Automatic annotation (TrEMBL):
It is found in: Cytoplasm; Nucleus. Keywords: ATP-binding, Coiled coil, Cytoplasm, Membrane, Nucleotide-binding, Nucleus, Proteasome, Transmembrane, Transmembrane helix. The keyword Oxidoreductase does not apply. Residues 176-315 form the AAA+ ATPase domain. The lineage of its organism: Eukaryota, Metazoa, Ecdysozoa, Nematoda, Enoplea. This is 26S proteasome regulatory subunit 8. CDD domains: RecA-like_PAN_like. It comes from Trichuris suis (pig whipworm). The keyword Hydrolase does not apply. Gene3D superfamilies: 1.10.8.60, Nucleic acid-binding proteins (2.40.50.140), P-loop containing nucleotide triphosphate hydrolases (3.40.50.300).
């Protein structure tokens, strides 16, 4: 029995030893496989680097090329090319180059020994200009715009219809419009409408501010304008939206300063590009400004700007539409009278109406509520009106005769602002020559006959 127990014990110990040894071997095998995969990855990476270095060496051994600009395609095998500063040459085309891809103003490479066109080069575009292109299609739609039905209809005719249905203009025998000017006070929806047009036409949207084209060095602004239109041609159909165009498009005057001369040169290049590019290339220009009165007449003439669309301050119906658009996703209680809120926002722009909705939500957050009430909207309207009254009082107090009391000062400035009767919040400070509006209580301005003797 003892021999049997000893034998079984030895066998059991042997199996345990074998199991441990197998585990060690499996661990080592996994480590070796991991090292093998790592070395294979390093080998592939080094092989890729070797291939790149070989290509660079072969390119360095090749003979250099001249860079030229195509002027005209003569026939299937000849092209007229301008090489700076040598001149113009009629050159042959390499058999590996597709002649259908050669267009006027294209950059090409010519062999140094034979002047054979052997490569089509990409257009040279400044990185600052390429950053102006919006990669993602704007998500704004016409449904997000309220109170601008007439403006939407007009911009559809000028921008969207020529891009989607150019055959209609060919059938009528008329030229497609090139550009449109949007003008009006700030916050009336000019930029929003331009984004919506780009969304519905599925065009490349290039947004540039006029101040970005004002450069320090001579000729830099004009060069950026040229490259801007080159990029628009390459990514057509495209829409170029130029905001604050009055910064470079103001009327030309005699000036001895270099900065004004550079701005005028930039505008002249813009005029040249508007006349030069073909409207059938699906390139449309939308300009926006708050100061149409200072723009140069040469920029506004038909053929460059074919339609001018005004964006006035919204009326009561438009303000109600804007309120409905911006409040439809808000968690509001029942019974909120948006029409009353729109009536109180006299003279406000669309951006200010949207700000009222945001401010109403902020009042609800301050009271730790997840829903917006009528009182929140009234408080937001009160805050907006307080800012306007404060500004008007500060501007008008120095112009009012001193014998008037503070109440009459506030009465006159309020009549100037609100015309007749509008609910506004106010309170008086102890100061004898100022008015501090507040949101504590409301009253209506009475119609009083005030006689002020001279």
């Amino acid at each position: 029995m003892e021999n049997t127990d000893v034998g079984s014990f030895m066998v059991q110990g042997l199996w345990q030893y074998i199991a441990v040894k197998l585990e060690d071997l499996e661990y080592e095998l996994n480590e070796k496989n991991h090292d093998l995969r790592r070395l294979q990855a390093q080998r592939n990476e080094l092989n890729a680097k070797v291939r790149l270095l070989k290509e660079e060496i072969s390119m360095l051994h090749e003979q250099g090329s001249y860079v030229g600009e195509v002027i005209r395609v003569m026939d299937k095998k000849k092209v007229l090319v301008k090489v700076h500063p040598e001149g113009k040459y009629v050159v042959d085309i390499d058999k590996n180059v597709d002649i259908t891809q050669i267009t006027p103003n294209a950059r090409v490479a010519l062999r140094a020994d034979s002047y054979v066109l052997h490569k089509i080069l990409p257009s040279k575009v400044d990185p600052l200009v390429s950053l102006m292109m919006v990669e993602k299609v704007p998500d704004s739609t016409y449904e997000m715009i309220g109170g601008l039905d007439r403006q939407i209809k007009e911009i559809k005719e000028v921008i969207e219809l020529p891009v989607k249905h150019p055959e209609l203009f060919e059938a009528l025998g008329i030229a497609q419009p090139k550009g449109v000017l949007l003008y009006g006070p700030p916050g009336t929806g000019k930029t929003l409408l331009a984004r919506a047009v780009s969304h519905h036409t599925e065009c490349t949207f290039i947004r540039v501010s006029g101040s970005e084209l004002v450069q320090k060095f001579i000729g830099e602004g004009a060069r950026m304008v040229r490259e801007l239109f080159v990029m628009a041609r390459e990514h057509s159909p495209s829409i170029i939206f130029m905001d604050e165009i009055d910064s470079i498009g103001s009327s030309r005057i005699e000036s001895n300063t270099g900065s004004d001369s550079e701005v005028q040169r930039t505008m002249l290049e813009l005029l040249n590009q508007l006349d030069g590019f073909e409207a059938t290339k699906n390139i449309k220009v939308i300009m926006a400004t708050n100061r149409i009165d200072i723009l140069d007449p040469a920029l506004l003439r038909p053929g460059r700007i074919d339609r001018k669309i005004e964006f006035p301050a919204p009326d009561e119906k438009a303000r109600l539409d804007i309120l409905r658009i911006h409040s439809r996703k808000m968690n509001m209680t029942r019974g909120i009278d948006l029409r009353k809120i729109a009536e109180n926002l006299v003279g406000s722009t669309g951006a200010e109406v949207k700000a009222v909705c945001t401010e109403a939500g902020m009042y609800a957050l301050r009271e730790r509520r997840v829903h917006v009430t009528q009182e929140d909207f009234e408080m937001a309207v009160s805050k907006f009106l307080c800012l306007v009254v404060n500004l008007l009082v500060c501007l008008s107090i120095p112009l009012i005769p001193s014998p008037l009391t503070p109440f009459l000062w506030f009465y006159i400035t309020s009549l100037i602002l609100l015309s007749f009767t509008v609910q506004i919040p106010l309170t008086f400070n102890d100061c004898t020559n100022c008015v501090v509006p507040s949101r504590h209580f409301f009253f209506k301005l009475p119609k009083l006959d005030i006689g002020v003797s001279g």
